[in-house]
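Bug #77: duplicate submission created two jobs. Keeping one. Sequence:
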Amino acid sequence: MSSLKLGCCLIILFFLTACSTGTQIQANPQGKVVSADSADKQPAKKAAKNGKVNGPSGPSSRSSAVNATGPAPAPTGGQTVKPNGNNAQEDGDNEVEEDVEEIVSFLRLAQAYRDKGDMDNALKSLDKAYGMLLSEDEDTSVVVREKDDLRLMIAKKILEIYAGRRAGPVGRLSEIPLIMNADVEKEIRSFQTIERNFFERSYERSGYYLPIMKQQLRQAGLPEELVWLPLVESGFQVSVLSKARALGPWQFIPSTGYKYGLNRDLFIDERMNVEKSTQAAIAYLTDLHGLFGDWLTALAAYNCGEGRVLKVISHQQINYLDHFWDLYQQLPYETARYVPRFLATLHIVKNPKKYGMDLPEPFAKPIAFETVKTYKPMKLSDIASEMSLPADTFVMLNPELRHQMTPDRPYDLKIPKGLGPQYASVADQIKESKPPVPEREKKVKVVKYKVKQGDTLASISKKFGTSPKAILSTNGLKSESQVTAGKTLKITVKTLEKGTQVASTKKGKSKKAAAAEPAVIKYTVKKGDTLTQIAKRYNTTIAEIAKMNHLPGNQVRIGQVLKIKNPAAETGG
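Kept job's structure:
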């Protein structure tokens, strides 16, 4: 039996690599396309050894080249033939031959569909041939090896079809299959209920970006449905940052962004540039689709990385196809939800009324723009002010500017279309801004601060430009209740090398810095000031201010000059 199956495998390999592309196809009475030599044949259904139906149902053909001598006709006249050992062996051989015939017929049918351009049915036929291949129970090393070879061969055919889809014209053949199952239904219910506001707001924002994204996807030959991926990724928010440091509408982490040409420096981060990040996403998705062969697995890899998906595939058993629904339960929870969420999004946007969603045409529209060349750091708010325009317009057009400031080099700034001459007339009047300080040029210092009566963790952290959590962590404290008057805290602060406002921890420098600060400062009372507010602002007490200024009570008047101890002069105590 093993040698017979091995021979069958060789026959199938032959048909996989050299089956005729001239197979004729026609429609059967049900309107389905089948090969000409099998149009009048009915689908074969055979019982497996365990009594269950073995192999998928579907159109099949019998190849005379493979099985020249079919099974003997059933005897007539009500006679019953009792099988002996030879008959049982012969029946088993005939059954294997029939299985091979049906597998070959599915492969020939797949080739016929492919020649006609019906890739969906070609893939279905390949899946049926694969299912028949798995119906054999023998597990000798030879058979297992041959099954693995066949599995790889069929996978290669599937990859060829998908590659042809990607290179072919955009249209029905490039669409992502709208699968509906329990996982997709669950995500649809989530969008209908607890995430309804997120979905509707994301849909509205999409109007700013859909035209350019669709255009680029269409030019690249990718499915236009991928334009809705940013809804799942970022809600169409260009500046949203994930816990994994992924940024932009397509949520690129820095390393992947660099790989696909998205630059990042002190002034710009092109992950937030809609046009450039869309081009990068197209390139990345194209590579992933070429690697995995189907869009759903490619999307899973887009979410958690191709390395994670390849690792799962490497542990797949032989009787599993390397498609998303065979993998997703072994992928991270977020990724397992990611693809169903995307499919749920497609279902809703294609038929919103069916799912009780009111999704009119997004009122948000792209802003028509032109570009002007800038050469110095300028705040977008200053440019908008000089041109009497809302600052939000410039932020929307130039989202890649990290600090809403033009770089200190030539840069193509986007402005509303038709306003180039107006910008040129005011460009010289726009003041140059001080560039942001790189993080690497900031120095970390630890200062000591003695807690005073009335101090709170919030007031101390605000004074030193840090956070309450950071102060607790630096001092090994668990709660604010441990911060009591008289306690000396170590506080970590980031300061510039010059113009430092916080004294150094070294004793010599600490005394020098303290001496440079006046011991007493003068404060002019403003409208709305109270003695309580002033005392809190300068980390002192009402009694201390009243004593220094000989105040009869707690009342102060507008314009009154008060003497107050300088808290900076006491830093380092």
